[in-house]
Automatic annotation (TrEMBL):
Family: Belongs to the enoyl-CoA hydratase/isomerase family.
Pfam families: ECH_1
Coiled-coil region list: none
Full protein name: Enoyl-CoA hydratase/isomerase (LiuC)
Signal peptide residue numbers: none
CDD domains registered for this protein in UniProt: crotonase-like (cd06558)
Keywords: Isomerase, Lyase
Keyword Ligase: no
EC number(s) given by UniProt: 4.2.1.18
Gene that encodes it: liuC
One function term, GO molecular function aspect: methylglutaconyl-CoA hydratase activity
Length: 250
């Protein structure tokens, strides 16, 4: 019998559903999992009709970080680059991304959630940038942690490596919401996303990406973006639906 894939990938309804699938190992990340996730997020926009991507973990844990067997092998720069590429690919995915977290979420897994647009967690979820406690630093995670939490909070959590619960994560801004029913909370959020125009949402994600540009270059880019959206069939349908007091047909 063939072994189950370490990342389960399913396109159901209008959502690409990714599940970390090493429950006996706490869904600890391996190079193969990183490659599969990078490819899935990179290719998500090519699936016609998809509106979002969800990332979850099978079993009791979301993801306990990098696999210790892999971490014990001789390190290479390429390994760090692969992890950085994964986080960047998630952050730059043109579709809305949702992480659904239960149980432990530590180390490299914090990069997965920090790079997502929305993070939903069960009340029992526990988080931590725990690298410092094994003599490491959360290097490639840092841009996404700082973007989500701010420099001061990131500094404290990185330097102490302390673990914190879901209410604290919500207070810090890591989480979008905490729910006893992750599936129901995800469905509600997906329904809210479906109410918006898919082309507009892709444009919003593009607008929010950090760029090295002058203020005048930024202003010109934003002006071009809103002009293109105003001239789109989607915008015309949205305005017509609003005036007709009906739900738009995206």
């Amino acid at each position: 019998m063939a072994a189950a894939p370490e990342v389960s990938i399913e396109s159901r309804d209008d959502v690409l559903r990714l599940v970390l699938n090493r429950p006996r190992k706490g869904n600890a990340l391996t190079p193969e999992m990183m490659g599969a996730l990078t490819a899935a997020f990179a290719g998500a926009a090519e699936h016609v009709g998809l509106r979002a991507v969800t990332l979850a973990g099978a079993g009791k844990q979301f993801c306990t970080g990098a696999d210790l067997g892999w971490m014990a092998s001789p390190p290479t720069v390429e390994q760090g680059e692969a992890l950085a590429e994964l986080f960047r690919t998630i952050a730059e995915c043109p579709l809305p991304t949702l992480a659904l977290v239960q149980g432990g979420c530590y180390g490299g897994a914090m990069g997965l959630v920090a790079a997502c647009d929305f993070v939903l967690a069960a009340p029992d979820a526990e988080f931590g940038f725990t690298e410092v406690r094994v003599g490491l630093a959360p290097a490639v995670i840092s841009p996404w942690a700082i973007q989500r939490l701010g420099v001061a909070r990131t500094r404290e959590l990185f330097l102490t490596g302390e673990r914190f619960d879901a209410p604290r994560a919500l207070e810090l801004g890591l989480l979008s919401r905490v729910s006893d029913d992750l599936a129901a909370a995800a469905d509600a959020l997906l329904d809210a996303l479906r109410a918006g125009g898919p082309q507009a949402q892709r444009a919003i994600k593009e607008l929010l990406l950090e760029r090295d540009e002058t203020p005048s270059e930024r202003d010109a880019r934003l002006a071009r973006a809103i002009t293109a959206l105003r001239d789109s069939d989607e915008a015309r349908e949205g305005v017509a639906a609003f005036l007709d007091k009906r739900r738009p047909e995206w």
